[in-house]
Amino acid sequence: QEITVRHDTEQPNSHFGALNKLSLSTMVLLREIKWMGATPAFIFPRLTCLELFSSQRLLHLSWVMYLPRLEQLYIDLCNGMVQAFMRCHGDKLCNGQDKTKTFPRLKLLFLIYNESLETIGDNGMEFPSLERLELEGSLALKRLPFQSDSVPPKLKELRFDDARCWERLECEEGVKTILQPYLKFGRRHQG
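The structure assignment produced for this chain is given below.
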C-alpha cells in the first residue's frame, strides 16, 4: 500500500543519479510514496520524465514538485487522487523543502482520466516553466491552482475535453480572462 524511500547513511551514494525517465504502471494497491531522510531531488537528481499509469488508489504525487529537472509529467488513470499536489502532506518532506520553489522546470503536465481529481494543487502553486497543461477525462475537476499573480508565464496551451469542463471551473477573479488565449478543446488521448 505504500513505498517508503529511505536515505541510507551507510550508503551515501544510494540514489538513481543517471535515471532520466521513470514509468510506474498498474500499481493498483499503492496509496502513498513516503520519504524518510531523503529528498526526491537527492534520489532522482536527473529525472526529466515521470509517467504514472493505473494507480487507482494513489492519493497524491506531491513529492514530484521538488524534482529539479522534471520537465514532463503524465498522470493517467489515478482515480483515488482528489488533489494531485500538496505542499504539506503528512510526511516530513514538506519540512525540508523550499515551499516556494515548486516545479522549477516542468514544461508538460498531462492529467488524463483521473476521475476523482478536483484540483491540481494548492492555490498559488508555482509553475514557472509550464508550457502545456492537458486535463482530459477529469470530470470532477473544480479548480486550478492559479491565481492572477501565479499563472504560468510560459503557458502556450491549456486543453480541456470541452467548454463545459472549462466553464464549471472556480477561479479567482480575472484568472479565466488571463487563461482564455491558451484554451483548446477536444481530446487527444483515448481512454
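Interim note for the steering committee: Residues 163-167 form the longest helix (5 residues). The chain has a mean pLDDT of 87.
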